[in-house]
Design a protein that fits this description.
By secondary structure, the protein is of the alpha+beta class. Helices cover 58% and strands 14% of the residues. The protein contains eight helices and seven strands. The chain is elongated and about 130 Å long.
Length: 336
């Protein structure tokens, strides 16, 4: 800390005036007593000198302690300005400066956390822009190539291919927009009470053609009376992504098990396939954006599970994925 002349600070005036006032009072008192009792003059002079020394010493150390406390708080703010969080335990007592020290430390920690979040969001935005550009580049380039190859003779065939690429582009853009809402926590929060069984059936119906193509059996274990409070459109998006992941990894002629039940604190939905276990090195990264595991299909974008996880979290729930004895289980817990 910078050495400071205590007697040049504005804060010293009040304490200095207090010390001077006490010395004058003591001096006047001693002079009056000495005038009334001249024989005690020498003793009173010694007492007066001792009182002056005592008052000066007490006021000096009092002032010094105040200045040290102010310096400590000032240094704490300077350290925070350089992204350094300091906390002096020796300064923590029951005084007002200690309370100010604690409140300042709390404020600095909150400010640092906010600064870290802003930096994290900035990096995430940069990554998202890069990823979006990369994901959009392929269908746009494919579309351009198809346009270059269009002739009157192959117009019908190429038009069908262009429509496929356009649908893929629309789906990709919609998923990226939804992912952006997940990342920025701006998903719609409006919830309605609805039948869980109906919602899962609606999600399942959107994928029945592909499920039938692999000759998969669906083991249905969902009670018809279960009710949940969610945003129907968003939660269906999450269910579709999870069911899609399950049938993609399920062997042909195997069984998908869809079950749901409730307890005192949550409604639990499980979707289980009989596919190969997920590699251990992939398990910690399943919900990362654009992460593609070793078992992912070639056309997988790596954002389906990230979207599903974000929607479930926004629905006051939790999604977990774990290997089981004979397959992989997806578990959704919606807390009541």
């Amino acid at each position: 800390m910078v050495k400071i002349n205590l007697f040049k600070l504005p804060e010293t005036k009040y304490i200095a005036w207090l010390a001077l006032t006490l010395i004058i009072i003591c001096g006047g008192t001693m002079a009056t007593i000495a005038w009334l009792t001249p024989e005690n003059g020498p003793a009173l002079m010694v007492i007066f000198i001792m009182l002056v020394g005592l008052i000066s010493t007490v006021c000096y150390f009092w002032l010094r302690q105040v200045v040290i406390s102010l310096q400590t708080l000032t240094q704490q703010i300077k350290d925070a300005d350089h992204n350094q969080v300091t906390y002096d335990l020796a300064f923590n007592n029951t005084g007002l400066f200690s309370n100010l020290h604690n409140e300042l430390y709390r404020y600095i920690r909150q400010t640092q956390s906010l600064r870290d979040n802003i930096e994290h969001d900035r990096q995430q935005l940069t990554t998202a822009i890069t990823d979006i550009a990369h994901q959009l580049r392929t269908p746009i380039a494919t579309t351009q190539n198809l346009l270059d190859l269009v002739t009157p003779q192959n117009l019908t065939t190429e038009q069908s291919k262009l429509q496929q690429q356009n649908q893929r582009l629309i789906q990709l853009v919609n998923q990226l927009i939804l992912l952006a809402k997940v990342d920025t926590h701006t998903l719609a929060r409006q919830k309605n009470e609805l039948s869980l069984s109906d919602l899962i059936k609606q999600s399942l119906n959107l994928l029945l053609v592909k499920i039938a193509a692999k000759d998969l059996k669906v083991d249905w274990q969902v009670k018809p009376d279960l009710q949940i409070s969610v945003n129907a459109a968003l939660f269906q998006e999450a269910l579709v992504n999870l069911i899609k992941n399950n049938y993609e990894h399920a062997p042909e002629h195997s069984t998908l098990t869809i079950a749901a039940n409730k307890n005192d604190i949550s409604t639990i939905i499980t979707i289980t396939n009989q596919g190969a276990p997920i590699p251990e090195q992939d398990l910690p990264h399943l919900f990362e954006r654009f992460y593609r595991g070793r078992q992912s299909p070639a056309d997988n974008l790596g954002i389906g599970l990230a979207i599903a996880n974000g929607i479930i979290q926004a629905s006051d729930g939790r999604l977990t994925i774990a290997n089981q004895n004979h397959g992989v289980g997806y578990r959704i817990e919606l807390f009541r």
